[in-house]
Amino acid sequence: MTFELLGRVHKELSITGHAFYETVLAISELVNRKVQIIRLHRQASTLLKKIDEVTGTLGQQIVTHVSDRLLDKSSLDSGVGTINETLTEAIAQVRQLKTFLVRVDTQIRELKLEAIHQDLLAFQRDLTLRSGGIERITVTRGAAAAHEPLSALPYSASAHVATVFRGPFVLAPTKDLLLRPGDIVILIGAQAELDKLTTWFTGQRALTPSLTRPA
Length: 215
What we know:
By secondary structure, the protein is an alpha+beta fold. The protein folds into 2 domains: 2-128, Orthogonal Bundle (Helix Hairpins), CATH 1.10.287; 131-208, Regulator of K+ conductance, C-terminal domain (Alpha-Beta Plaits). It has helices at residues 2-71, 76-129, 191-202, 209-212; strands spanning 132-138, 159-166, 169-171, 184-190. The longest helix is centred in the N-terminal third of the chain and has 70 residues, at 2-71.
């Protein structure tokens, strides 16, 4: 009996220690990702400053050459050649800097997408622990929701419309918003309530646990 108790304690401590390790690792990855994003933003800021410096220097050189031309008309040909050469060099430098800037911007986007993905996983886990969920539902033609305002949505004490996507737009879920076929509705709330509201948006009955249970 004593050995069995010690075994249980050891097992629980092992699970707790593993969970603690995963938590510390997740926090470390999060901090590291944020540090990388900050560094990339600084690098992007430096590149933008260099582009401003190149264009500023080019402008000063053009002004100087134009002033010399006005003072000494005999230097017209040489002045134009110098301006063309300076302009070509500046264009090459700006193009190179912009290429670096695009690469940095791509890296920043990728890191932010990773952070968002982790946040969404944590959000989904929080909802699941509370028997909640988030649904992405497309309004179908012929459904009760089509061409109806959001105020006609059947009452639910624990499910709400978070937002509506229409083409490239994000629409606020106001009561007078008329839903159209093809609109993407984001619902959040208790999973049981979400299942009930699905029919109103799609015209199809939500699958019940008995229907989804394997034979």
